[in-house]
Amino acid sequence: MAAELAVHRLPPPLSAKVVGSFAYLTVKDRLPTILTKVIDTIHRNKNKFFEEYGEEGIQAEKQTISLLSKLRNELQTDKPVLALTDGLPDTESWNQYLQRHQGSEGDQESVSWFKSTWLYVECYMYRRIQEALWLNPPISDYDVFSEGKTQSFFESQQAVITLCTHLENIKERMQELSKNQLLEHFNKLLQVSLWGNKCDLSISAGQDNSQKISPIDSLRSLQPFILVDDSNMVWSTLISAQTLGQSGKITTGRVDIVLDNAGFELVTDLVLADFLISSGLTREIHFHGKSFPWFVSDVTAKDFHWTIRQTMAANHKWMSKSGFEWQNYMKEGVWSYHDHPFWTQPHEFCDMATDAPDLYATLQGADLVLFKGDLNYRKLTGDRDWNHMVGFDCALRGFGPTPLCSLRTLKANVQVGLQPGQGEKLTSQDPDWMTSGKYAIIQFHSTKS
Ligand SMILES: O=P(O)(O)OC[C@H]1O[C@](O)(CO)[C@@H](O)[C@@H]1O
Ligand SMILES: [Mn+2]
């Protein structure tokens, strides 16, 4: 890997300072659009705040909107990024990160929305939204993105029912399935979880993203759009995590799923996780979500538990049966939900071992970690402008707590581990292949690099 890095000088992180780049268009257009939608959402809920909190609620609504309008102006006029003032547990680490970014001379101007790195300013925007709410109790814990996330769930009901019915059919016959049949079902549900990632609200700045067609029937037609498919490595990692105990009983491994979006995507992850447990392939699943609302549609603890409750309450027997099963897994500790602050900070994952050694150690306890989505891929690879043929292990720059796999639909112009000529061919066929969400990867890395 070191040799490869020597050959491929470390490319710069993507930044909006490159006029016309995808980062530039995101910072110039999409982030202000998202902020405007947040302001509109808060304004639209003004009466709700009044009903719940009286005059205080109105004051808080007004104050929050003025803070967010100020934030939008800073963003649109490329002002210096400001230190956080809300005194939350992570405020210090955010402000230290900003100081490091400003360099020793404390050059404030150099860290502005269009001059700094895209990954940093985009993460920072969501943390500033949190600050605006946090500074204005009693609406501090209002989730400005909840309407979009719940809508994505409700509008995907048909697909959810199809998925839960499909899972039920497998579970009914689980004992008689051959290993090949098990592998086939695994590959299908891995791909369903992969394509569930198309449904994220930040890329569409909140536009409709519900899943309308059958998630199973569409797999065959989507197959050609998977640019890297290491699913066989994922399968063999699961199998090799199984050990034969003294008593002749097979014990299986632990899989961690670093979640991305709520709504339909979360259901696809829960279905995959249920299959891993009910097939006996895995003994335990740790889910990792966000500790506050993030990138419009990312999963918070509230979303996670709400989704299980909603599935239980469905008036479709296989859907509600799945929901009760999932609640049971949580109760028994077979499944657990975690939300370390690191996931809502701007760090590249190669810094995790130093910046969040406790989280790194947690992930080392898993036999496999699945990273869902585009933002996680950007952080795995440092959001850098890599040559597409650079190896995934090289781009990870030493991050490797345990064998890992990225399940990602491409929504940002970062992609490594392609074959010679593959990137060029895609660019000639489909110029937006890196950002349209049409293409995907199942990209694996074992720690034995
Ligand atoms: O929900 P996902 O798959 O992480 O997608 C979020 C991505 O969408 C974008 O907002 C699109 O540019 C990226 O900034 C971000 O990485
Ligand atoms: Mn997301």
UniProtKB/TrEMBL annotation:
Positions of the Damage-control phosphatase ARMT1-like metal-binding domain: 26-426
One GO CC annotation: nucleus
Cofactor: Mn(2+); Ni(2+)
Pfam family, one: ARMT1-like_dom
Reaction equation(s) it catalyzes: beta-D-fructose 1-phosphate + H2O = D-fructose + phosphate; beta-D-fructose 6-phosphate = dihydroxyacetone + D-glyceraldehyde 3-phosphate; L-glutamyl-[protein] + S-adenosyl-L-methionine = [protein]-L-glutamate 5-O-methyl ester + S-adenosyl-L-homocysteine
EC number: 2.1.1.-, 3.1.3.-
GO molecular function: metal ion binding; phosphatase activity; protein carboxyl O-methyltransferase activity
GO biological process, one term: methylation
Keywords assigned by UniProt, alphabetized: Hydrolase, Manganese, Metal-binding, Methyltransferase, Nickel, S-adenosyl-L-methionine, Transferase
Family: Belongs to the damage-control phosphatase family. Sugar phosphate phosphatase III subfamily.
Stated role: Metal-dependent phosphatase that shows phosphatase activity against several substrates, including fructose-1-phosphate and fructose-6-phosphate. Its preference for fructose-1-phosphate, a strong glycating agent that causes DNA damage rather than a canonical yeast metabolite, suggests a damage-control function in hexose phosphate metabolism. Has also been shown to have O-methyltransferase activity that methylates glutamate residues of target proteins to form gamma-glutamyl methyl ester residues. Possibly methylates PCNA, suggesting it is involved in the DNA damage response.
Comment text on domains: Subfamily III proteins have a conserved RTxK motif about 40-50 residues from the C-terminus; the threonine may be replaced by serine or cysteine.
Name of the molecule in the record: Sugar phosphate phosphatase
